[in-house]
Amino acid sequence: MAKLASRIKDWAAEIFIRAEQRGAFRKLKAFERDLGEYPELSILAENFPAIRAECEQLLRMRLQIPGMEELTSYTASGIHQISWKTIMFKSGTFIEANCALAPNTAALLRGIPGIYTAFFSVLEPRQHIKAHWGYWKGFVRYHLGVMIPDNNRNNKCWIRINPDAQARSGDRAAIAQGETYHWHDGEAVMFDDTFLHDAANEADSVRVVLFLDVARKMPWPLALLNRLFLWIAHQDKSVREIRANAKIKAA
Length: 251
Fold this sequence. Notes:
Elements: H1 2-21, H2 42-46, H3 48-58, H4 68-71, E1 84-91, E2 93-94, H5 96-99, H6 103-110, E3 115-123, E4 127-132, E5 139-147, E6 157-162, E7 179-182, E8 188-191, E9 196-201, E10 207-215, H7 220-233, H8 237-245
């Protein structure tokens, strides 16, 4: 059964890769700073102060926040084996216990259609997330800078993407030819995480971004197929495991 599920996932992923190649939907640039195609997301940057205030409160519970490596037995090429924590609000469905700890942020997220994953990505100081590829062309990834050390005055917090390196069997060294984006407080950006990418916090204090996976805008037959595959994927044992393990532990 697991092998069948894996084959279906690979087949589905290939459908969307080929659809993009045929021009059925737009290939993203390395970084999309104009979010006009997703106007529903603008409410998050507009409410940045409230989101940041709740994040600051949650970081007082730093020791209880689970690390990425605690969420699931799956690790993507070891990228979770660093000091990287998550305050997860949604993974397919909302995690109510965590949402109660940040009610304003959760309410904003509930009002936005098409969000499948939502969390505060908490990267500790002097950490590097090595180059890797995401899995699903049916998502676009959104980052909102929430707590960026010194508002990145020294460009020490960054993400780098090579949009010409999409093959998961490709050479990770191609990241050296990537384009770099530096996060800033209250500033949003979107990208396609199936492109080769890496990221780092080279500063001396924690970096937090609000991290979303949002259903990609596509022609309706592909959008319907995408919704079906995503519904199936979020019934998987590994995703249920994430929801269970993502709950912030009591002090």
